[in-house]
Amino acid sequence: MKLPTDLILGRPLEENQERSLPEFVENLRERMDQIHRFAREKLKIHSDKMMQRLDTTSTETAFKPGDASNWEGPYTIIRKINDLVYRIQLSPRSKPKMVHLERLARYTGHNPPDWFVVEDPPPRTEDSVIRDE
Known about the structure:
This protein has helices spanning 4-9, 21-57, and strands at 68-69, 75-80, 85-89, 97-100. By secondary structure, it is an alpha+beta fold.
């Protein structure tokens, strides 16, 4: 008689059939390797699906100097350190803070701070371009 557990654990040994210990260990290792491969494949498939779902629902947010946060403040973005970290400041006399992008929200009020002036880079001219000759 076959049971569902026979599919997972293998068929039980007949009473007159004996296995040596090394043979049993090798068989057990092979089955465990198969189970691990199966589990890794399923985890990879589901991980990819979750990542794809996250990518379709998330939006990329980027700030630039002069933008303000609206949770506390409004703070003004002083400088973008990298893609995820920004230096912000509440007022001209307050100490600047470095914060992660997830801790910022775009200011949607009508009166943004006017004390911070964004300086535009100088315009490029033919003389300012460096060329390899």
